[in-house]
Amino acid sequence: MEKYTGAFLSILSIILLTYLTSKAQVNLEGKWTGQLRQHIMGSFTDSPYQLQINQLGDSLYGIAHIEASEFLSVYAEMAFTGRIKGNKVYITENKFLEGTDLNDAVGWCIKELTLTHIKSEKGYRLKGNWEGYANNNGKPCKPGILYLDKLSA
Questions:
Q1: Residue of 51, 102, 43 lying closest to 72 (CA atoms)
Q2: Which of 24, 36, 96, 103 allows an S-S link to 49, with CB 3.0 to 4.6 Å?
C-alpha cells in the first residue's frame, strides 16, 4: 500500500506542477493597439501605437508601429524583442525598419517599454511606461506612458 501512495503522490505532484506551469504562461501573441503619450513642449501628445507580438515561451519579438498622430500620415516601424516575467512585460525596440523621414532635426524614438498585463473591460491590456532615444542622434527622448488593448488573449 505504501508503494502505491508514493507513486500516487508523485503523479499528483507532476499533474499539479504541469497545471501551475501552464496557468503561469501568458499568451500575448497577436495585435495590440492603443496610444503612446509623450510630454512635448508643455503639452501631452498621444500617438497611435501598435505591437504585432510573436511569442515563444516567455520570449517575445515582432513589429512596433507608431504614427505621429491620428491626423497625419507620418509613421515608423521598428523591430522589437522582449520577455514576460509574471504579469510584467519588457519590450525593447532594437531596429528602425521603415517610416517617414523626419529629417536630421527630429528622429523617431527607439523605445524600451515596461508594461503590466491586466484584464480589462475590453479584454486584455498592457499598460506602463516607456523611455528611449532618438534613432538619428542617440539623444534621450522625453519619456511617457502607454496602453495597448487586445480583444482576446
A1: 102
A2: 36
